[in-house]
Amino acid sequence: MTPPADHRSSALRAVARRATFGRSLGLLRSFPLEQSDPDAFYSGLARDTVELVADLWSESGDRPADPAIGRLPELTVLDVGGGPGYFSDAYAAEGARYVSVEPDAGEMSAAGLDQAGSIRGSGMSLPIRSDSVDVCISSNVAEHVPEPWTMAEEMCRVTRPGGLVVVSYTLWYGPFGGHEMGLTHYLGGERARRMYERREGHPPKNVYGESLFEVGCAEGLEWARNTASGELLAAFPRYHPRWAWWLVRAPLIREVLVSNLVLVLRAR
What we know:
By secondary structure, this protein is α/β, with parallel strands linked by helices.
């Protein structure tokens, strides 16, 4: 199933304007701070994520922005895998009602932030009624669940018809697929884990086969193009400048060079 060209171009227009080399470089420089300075890393990622959602909504949503409230005026945004709460204030600043679902109680409290809008639950079985949110997003979560497309279907289920579903995830064979294990994941996930433990003296935060799984670009595109739960509006590399977006259309090399794939769907 291929969505109409006007839908695709509309969904991408605002995002493409912001996809500059300077933005890509700034995000790239922040990635090594995830472990050493999580406040700096996640605060910057939160701002970028909310801008992404606001851009997509401005072109594809059915409710116009209200200058007095923000670009996501009174929308209910469900963040699957919201983590320790860095995203809440950024969404509130754009007028959204933010709710997150996080399975790990330790992760929810890791930053000591207010988690009043958080629900503990699994992304593969969301404790949310159907058709109840305007936007459902998961940012860098699909690679951490054993059944990512079950989670994606759940995200579509809870999103009202006409709402947006945004699935953004890290590709296993990309340079950041091993997360804190670095490029050793190219030697195999189990070997990368053992090498990390020998080097650091403790297991990695993201354990291969338990909290980190192999997920690729082609399988995400296949799900998004064929699901009956939504209409694919856009697919693009999240952290790349606009001139590199063609990589999503290139079989094989996209698995290594896309790094993080964004799938944008309109829920049915």
